[in-house]
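Forum: Protein Structure Q&A
Topic: Joint prediction for protein chains with partners

I've read a bunch of threads here and the consensus seems to be that you should model interacting components together rather than docking separate models afterwards. I'd like to see that in practice. Below is the full input, 238 residues plus whatever partners are listed. Could one of the regulars post the assembled result?
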Amino acid sequence: EVQLVESGGGLVQPGGSLRVSCTASGFTFSNYWMTWVRQAPGKGLEWVANIKYDGTEKDYVDSMKGRFTISRDNAKNSLYLQMSSLRAEDTAVYYCARVAAIGADYSKYRWFDSWGQGTLVTVSS
Amino acid sequence: DIVMTQSPDSLAVSLGERATINCKSSQSVLYSSNNKNFLAWYQQKPGQRPKLLFYWASTRESGVPDRFSGSGSGTDFTLTISSLQAEDVAVYYCHQYYSSPFSFGPGTKVDIK
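Posted by a regular:
Agreed with the consensus. Here's the joint model:
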């Protein structure tokens, strides 16, 4: 069974930094593109970033480029999102999700087939 | 960037009745080389994580009840619940994975009338 478990959320002051993590199990993590999606309280879903299975390619939404860094450690089956220069509008639940594959065809242009439960990041003084 | 819109913002339907949600993309998400629409639908129940319902616009994910159907092509898509059940109360999102930055519609909230 695919499982994704986020951790590391919490309260951080404006301008501060935080790293959230996602630990994967139940599948061969190193084969899959992974992604982060966030959801502000009471709002919709917003795609944040994705990363190739080997970590060599990364994509970000423009509004987070330069402030957020996605990374992974395949030996630890873990995905990370390092966030800096945090603002109140970054307050959200951060979900990690697996990018679907079709057989042995792993592409970033796929839907998100499994999601974690999310971790809440609150930016406030 | 592709902008996704959904209509209506919310709807209330009687149990057993049909619910229809529309999704529109600002440019086509149909990829000509494989004739597939790079469009997915998710359901998010209150307090839960999103759950995949459809991909390629109309391919039902395993385990999704067949009262749910997805249709459309190019820029216009529809999610239909043929006979609304109480457990279908949720927010529904469309998602384009045709080009980066990937994007979601703003969501449609479905309630019981």
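The radius of gyration of chain A is 14 Å.
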